[in-house]
Amino acid sequence: MLNLNKILTALQNYNVHFILIGGQAAVVQGSAYLTYDVDICYARDKENLENIVRALAPFHPYLRGVEKGLPFIFDAKTLEIGLNFTFTTDIGDIDILGEIEGIGIYEEVIKHSEVMQIYDIPCNVLTIEGLIKSKKSVGRPKDEVVIKEMEAILEIRQQQGK
Amino acid sequence: MNKEKETIYEYKTKNAIQEAIDYGLDVTLLYESLSLTPTIRLERNLQMLEVIEELRKAGERKHAKS
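Predict the joint structure of the above. Result:
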């Protein structure tokens, strides 16, 4: 079962530069939809890759949907070779993305983020506008409902003066 | 907020609530969610996932017996 508190705490403790994106970011921003995994966009510099490994290795990340027992080494080199990874871990499914469609790499995504307190942890979270931009770019039918919801949340916030 | 950003913001949100209702969304859930802190929103999501997991297991048990 997903333990978001543990995931965010681990990333914070190892000073990982990341932005909460995807469904959990939508929930943080007010979405009423249920979401099962955690998506983050991460910085690709060497130090950050090493910090990600230090933070998540204790939870035994393994490639989601891949047959068990295949040789997989969760280290900075592996992260450097790839870009976007979908992991299953002891504390839930985590997707770590080096780039998100419609916005770009971490250095661009951070411009579309805001700091929010989650479990008393200051986290960079993709803004509603950023979520809409990304989901519109992907263009999946399942995202249409989320886009409608996000746009409604923007209007509600506007009405409430937030 | 500068003028250009304000214009884009207003454009995006014009009639969005009504569009969401017409689309079939229950916007009362959004009002309720927005009244909570971000952490409580996440906690509620996780609690619901636990409920769904229990329901899924119940379904599996039922089908395993039949």
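Helices of chain A lie at 4-13, 22-28, 46-56, 76-81, 106-109, 128-138, 141-160.
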